[in-house]
Amino acid sequence: MKGMMRYDLMETIRNTNEWMGASARAMASYPVWGLAPHPMFKLLSAWGRVTERSFARMVIKPDWGIRSIAGADGRDHVVSVETLVDKPFGSLIHFAVQGRAPMKRRIMLVAPMSGHYATLLRSTVASLLPDADVYVTDWHNARDIPVSEGKFDIEDYTLYLVDFMKYLGPDINVIAVCQPAPLTLAATAYLAEEDPAAQPRTLTLIGGPIDPDAAATEVTDFGARVTMGQLEHMVIQRVGFKYKGAGRMVYPGLMQLASFISMNMDKHTAAFKDKIVAEAKGEGSEHDHHNVFYDEYLAVMDMTAEFYLSTVERIFKGLEIAQNTFTVNGKRVDIGKITDVAVKTVEGSNDDISAPGQCVAALRLCTGLPESKKAQHLEPGAGHYGIFAGSSWRNNIRPLVLEFIDQNADNGPKGKVTPIRAV
């Protein structure tokens, strides 16, 4: 009950702050204050609007917001999101472009399950849609999954990826972003041995901790410094009474958000101060840069305790992927068994979460692949977010990834590939 009480306390604090913001906004917006125009009322109203919105976003799953794309035929094509495979802890979704012929490039984006929803890849999806059919792993919030559905750890995650790849077929091109990179590599190796015909055509790993010891970051230092017992005691709680997953052991999203913000506290503090001042001056807008970024950044989801703890213990501390000793259901997954899948790694020179050297280690592990099927790219000046969603992704990395896919198109079904379009 202690963990459940702590969980509900965090939700109570969040709810209280949302209420305080709404109350301040409403009180400071009364018309009567127009008789005594004082900047304090505008500032209080602005603080209330920003505070209410910020704390409300923390429990709202963002919408994908991709309504249509421009087609090669000069027409706008409506985009709809359809669920292809629905599992308790995650789904495989497809961005169906109405009125467009099936594309030769088919891409499965493996979204991180590290505190944010898959919509964190919204701009990545939007940039790829004009040139490919896009599928995404949409992980579910653990607080909404009943305890009766059982556990979900990194082995279960790997098997989910295996099932998704099998469903999509061998002509799929997989792109794993950040946290899932090592497990996506393991899932591909699992298929190489268990069902070779179901392997993807290409595998692109972007900024993932394949070998966390290859380059130190604040994340790896924390993982090395804290024991598993300390970690479990500090961050694991039981879902409170408000949600369907009541009683499930989780790493709460609100606690993860506090950790995210603490890593760049000065930057976030300045951003909120500037936003409040802008609102008070009447210069704020619904879809300005601040709202667009923080509506996504503040929307967090719970992770199952077993997934988070097994990630830290086996990927970061035990280095099971880096040392090629990872097991699924007691059977070792040998990354050296990958012989037909072209593998590319992408890193950012300024990535402070998965530093350069951590992801490219995947190529060293692929001992069964010829050098002609290996590629790597280090993006100068790019941080972690920029290598999959920022200008570095749009202008430099995206064209290289699509070119890599096209270069290896002869590994699967033949067919004409549509030229890459600028975004």
Automatic annotation (TrEMBL):
Coiled coil: none
Family matches, as InterPro entries: AB_hydrolase_fold, PHA/PHB_synthase, PHB_depo_C, PHB_depoly_PhaZ
Pfam families for the chain: PHB_depo_C
PHB de-polymerase C-terminal domain mapped to chain residues: 207-408
Listed name of the protein: Polyhydroxyalkanoate depolymerase
Gene it is expressed from: phaZ
